[in-house]
Automatic annotation (TrEMBL), chain A:
Keywords: Cell membrane, Membrane, Transmembrane, Transmembrane helix, Transport
Record's protein name: Carbohydrate ABC transporter permease
Any one GO cellular component localisation term in the record: plasma membrane
Subcellular location: Cell membrane
UniProt keyword Membrane present: yes
Family: Belongs to the binding-protein-dependent transport system permease family.
Topology of the protein relative to the lipid bilayer: Multi-pass membrane protein
Taxonomic superkingdom: Bacteria
TrEMBL record, chain B:
PANTHER family: ABC TRANSPORTER PERMEASE PROTEIN (PTHR30193), INNER MEMBRANE ABC TRANSPORTER PERMEASE PROTEIN YCJO (PTHR30193:SF37)
Family recorded in the similarity comment: Belongs to the binding-protein-dependent transport system permease family.
Transmembrane segments: 32-62, 90-116, 128-148, 180-204, 225-247, 284-307
Main localisation: membrane
Name of the protein this chain belongs to: Sugar ABC transporter permease
Membrane topology according to the record: Multi-pass membrane protein
Gene Ontology biological process terms in this record: transmembrane transport
Annotated SUPFAM superfamilies: MetI-like
CDD domains assigned: TM_PBP2
Length: 295, 319
């Protein structure tokens, strides 16, 4: 009796095992199908952008659209530079992005260090305020800061786009502070015994150790500034001073019948952030983890 | 209170700073350094945040173009905001955008993250594929989507058209039709779900496998494992992202400005676009300020509601 029951359950189990193997295989199949299909959907816009940029004019406007260029025309990538000073636009964007990023990295690391390591009255309240400003919609200060920059006579310069970032943007302060909190305190003590003051401690110990986090701030800020549209739209005057974003929009107005050149210009416009991403992928991921998960 | 701060000071670095000359009281010395190093943020906070916010309230009481005219109008603009049909249109559009994009993007990002976390081959490749669209944004992407949405020769309708033809339905005219223009901007926003996906993926990796093993021994199915183990442990991350997404989605501007300029027939007029138009196109800076405060209060209400709701669904247990 006992034996039969055992055998029965063993058979049953084997059956179940077989079943689960089949359903497991089916599950993997569905999973890979979904990942691949989703991946194609996410990648197609990029493909369409590239395919358009090299197509001959006679083919681009065909109906129904064709997927593969009958021949590759690379000259569309020259058009933006021939019509507008796009090289200058790239320089301008680079200048704004670099100027903002360096200032943001330095200031937020100093402030982040202060919040992470030094004790002073109101510090914790101030840090709560930092967190609160992170969730502040920034457009509530759009008009008054514009007035401020009018009064300072900064309109038409890059200063309104760069200088505010030198005053420790809240998000980066938060990021740097979280990073500094992970540096062991024993390092501080040994530096202190060598006679460092807090500035020396920051400069000699914490700053060199925080290069990865600084990299994150630089990457985020460069990307944000490169993609920004509203602030350059408000503050920049004169076509030669345009950023890439403004230049693209200007270019669109002149290229309504030249989709290849417009897509070529758009590719060039997003290329720097994509290159930056591939070079700094590890930092990118790490920064997102530090800021997102530990938040 | 005093005794607490004293013990803190002793534990801190301060005791070691007082060297040379007539030593300053260590705690004071450390505090001075603290304020000195925090000063970039303090100055920036006063000059670029608190000051402007208060100034914005005051500017909202004037009829001014900052050049020729400055007339005090009291609370007239603030009253106007509530009855202005364009503001209402912008508010409704932005609310629809926010309330569809935030939940759907969150679900989509979670779904992709969970799929990629099943020990899939070439995981980092797929991660890049899904993440890359969220790296690029701004004008170039808006121009690209404007092209994809082209009703006759765009990518979307070249796929949809043949699919809908048997049913005798014409594909939508996307950004050129009043009904589909706002949904177009919403669908386009799904393309950027990869940003949150990356965060969730990192969060999933942080969940200890021992918890899954325990659940498996208890005979929990994979569905149950997801809803009983994975999701609760991920809620703090989800919450943080949802709050940031709410704020971001209420500030949608570039797509609406570049692709449709708010049209057709104000179908894609968003709050920030309307503020921009009022201030920087029509030069009613006072009214723009009042609208900005209105937007600020609305976003604040939704953020507070989200924070309030946190205790009922965000799982704050240390792993």
């Amino acid at each position: 009796m006992a034996t039969t029951v055992q055998t029965g359950s063993a058979v049953h189990q084997a059956e179940r095992y077989d079943n689960s193997r089949v359903s497991e295989a089916l599950y993997r199949l569905l999973l890979y199908g979904a990942v691949i299909l989703g991946g194609i959907v996410f990648a197609i816009p990029f493909y369409w952008m590239m395919r358009t940029s090299v197509m001959p004019t006679t083919q681009v406007y065909l109906f129904p659209p064709e997927w593969w260029p009958e021949r590759f025309e690379w000259h569309h990538f020259k058009t933006p530079f021939a019509v507008f000073p796009f090289a200058k636009f790239f320089l301008n964007s680079t200048f704004i992005a670099a100027g903002s990023a360096i200032g943001a990295a330095l200031s937020s690391s100093v402030v982040g260090f202060s919040f992470a390591r030094l004790r002073f009255p109101l510090r914790d309240i101030m840090f709560v305020v930092v967190l609160a400003t992170m969730i502040l919609p920034e457009h509530v200060r759009l008009v008054p800061t514009y007035l401020l920059f009018v009064e300072l006579d900064w309109i038409g310069t890059y200063r309104p786009l760069i200088i505010p970032n030198w005053f420790a943007p809240a998000f980066y302060v938060f990021l740097m502070r979280q990073f500094f909190m992970t540096i062991p305190r024993e390092l501080d003590d040994s530096a202190m015994i060598d006679g460092c003051n807090p500035i020396g401690l920051f400069w000699r110990i914490h700053l060199p150790l925080s290069l990865p986090a600084l990299g994150v701030v630089l990457i985020f800020m460069v990307t944000a500034q490169w993609n920004d549209f509203l602030y350059p739209l408000i503050y920049i005057q004169g076509v030669p001073n345009y950023t890439v974003a403004l230049g693209l929009r200007l270019f669109e107005g002149h290229m309504t019948n030249n989709m290849q050149a417009l897509m070529a210009a758009s590719i060039l416009g997003v290329l720097p952030t994509i290159i930056l991403f591939f070079f700094a992928q590890r930092h990118f991921v790490q920064g997102i983890v530090v800021s997102g998960v530990k938040g | 209170m005093a005794s607490i701060s004293e013990t803190q000071t002793q534990k801190g670095l301060a005791s070691l700073f007082g060297r040379g000359g007539k030593p300053m009281k260590p705690s004071t010395r450390e505090a001075w350094y603290g304020y000195l190093l925090a000063s970039p943020w303090i100055i920036g906070f006063v000059v670029f945040t608190v000051g402007p916010m208060l100034a914005s309230l005051v500017i909202g009481m004037y009829r001014t173009d900052f050049l020729t005219e400055t007339t005090f109008v009291g609370f007239r603009w603030y009253q106007n905001v509530l009855s202005d049909s364009l503001v209402r249109k912008a508010l409704i559009n932005t609310a629809i955008f926010s309330f569809t994009v935030v939940p759907i993007n969150t679900a989509l990002a979670l779904l992709i993250a969970v799929m990629l976390n099943q020990g899939i081959r070439l995981q980092s490749f797929w991660r890049t594929v899904y993440y890359l669209p969220s790296v690029v944004s701004g004008v170039a992407v808006s121009l690209l989507w404007k092209w994809l949405y082209q009703p006759d020769i765009g990518l979307l309708n070249s796929i949809l058209g043949p699919m809908l033809r048997p049913f005798d339905i014409d594909p939508p005219r996307w950004i050129f039709s009043t009904e589909w223009a706002l949904p177009s901007l919403i669908i386009m926003a799904f393309w950027g779900a990869g940003g949150a996906m990356l965060i969730y993926l990192a969060g999933l990796r942080g969940i200890p496998t021992s918890l899954y093993e325990a659940a498996e021994i208890d005979g929990a199915s994979s569905f149950r494992r997801f809803f009983a183990v994975t999701l609760p442990l991920l809620t703090p991350t989800i919450f943080f992202n949802v709050v940031l997404n709410i704020i971001g989605s209420w500030q949608v501007f570039t797509q609406a400005m570049v692709m449709t300029r708010g049209g057709p027939n104000n179908a894609t007029l968003t709050m920030v676009l309307h503020i921009y138009n009022t201030g920087f196109q029509n030069f009613y800076f006072g009214y723009a300020s009042a609208q900005a405060w209105f937007l600020f209060v609305i976003v604040l209400i939704f953020v507070i509601l989200a924070l309030r709701s946190a205790s009922s669904w965000v799982h704050y247990e240390r792993v």
